Amino acid sequence: MFRRLSIAFLAVSATLAGCLPGREVLSVATVGVGRWPESVIFDPGSGRVFVADEGSATVTVLRSDGQRVGTIPLKTRARHLAVDPRLGHLYAPNEGSATVAAFDTLSLVEAFRVAVGKEPHGIAVDPVSHRVFVGNEGEDSLTAFDGRTGRVLYTVPAGPTPGGVAADPVTGRVFVVSVKADRVVALDGATGQRLGEIPVGRGPTHLGINMASGMVYVVNTEEGSVSILDDRGSRLRATVPVGNYPLAVAVDEKAGRAYVVNNRENTLTIIEEAQLEVRAHRRIPRNVSSIALNAPMGRMYLTLKSDDQVTVIRVRDL
After folding, report:
1. Exposure of 126 in the CB half-sphere (CA atoms within 13 A)
2. What global pTM score does this model have?
3. pLDDT < 70 positions in the chain
4. Widest CA span of the chain, in angstroms?
5. Is residue 5 part of a domain?
6. Is 161 in contact with 137 (CB distance < 8 Å)?
7. 74: in domain
8. Residue 221 maps to which CATH number?
9. Is residue 1 part of a domain?
10. What's the CA gap between 241 and 288, in Å, rounded?
11. Cys bridge to 24: 166, 222, 258, 283, which one at CB 3.0-4.6 A?
12. CB neighbours of 53 closer than 8 A, spacing ≥ 6?
């Protein structure tokens, strides 16, 4: 009897071993950035990495290998950024001045500034139409503008406390997290017309999108889960438990995987899109606030908010 129980225990342990985080993933480079780096994005057009430094109201610019290129001063802090690789524009919401500044991704010179709503926060770009969408957290609205000229197209209601924003260039839809309503609002990106609302988990904050498959990933920070939406039908496909206080997500479109940062347990959850389930958990540094993926080079960038650093890891080491 004892032998049978021991064999069963070992079998369960072996099954769980692949899901439990082990040693911390090795870093290939770590670089100092501005104060309190809140978010990071990779621009495939310029091959650069842009970091929103919340505490110093700057954007730190890095090469893909982590080497510093320069620093962009902002009028007020930005917590999120977006890029249009085809236009070569970086967009930074200036939360304290109700504007979004557009910069050239190579020269780092400001091209124009757009007046939007109060406390602009989440931001996304449709790289086909070149529309830019920004959630105005202070007035529960979404502003859309032409990313080429800065001309405002419309401002529409977006639900209580708009958070993360994502745009799908295939359908032309834009998605906005309504943090206090535990919903995602779907809008027509061309007109701002509301197409519907999708209930998700508790305390949603950020979004990621697979532009190839149309799957939308909703990070439910308070619930410790990720809701996966089918963009083509705008319906909930699954809600997947991840870790404690998930804060950010990056999507590998070709591999069909999503990487979720669990801030309060210092882990990274890997979700397989085809199976809609967790593949593995990996140990990462403490207090990671954001993640960006450079899929062609197999690199991942993590912002270490407490240490004012960005660390670079290899996807193959996960």
Report:
1. 22
2. 0.92
3. 1-20, 231, 233
4. 75
5. no
6. yes
7. yes
8. 2.130.10.10
9. no
10. 19
11. 283
12. 33, 34, 35, 36, 37, 38, 59, 60, 308
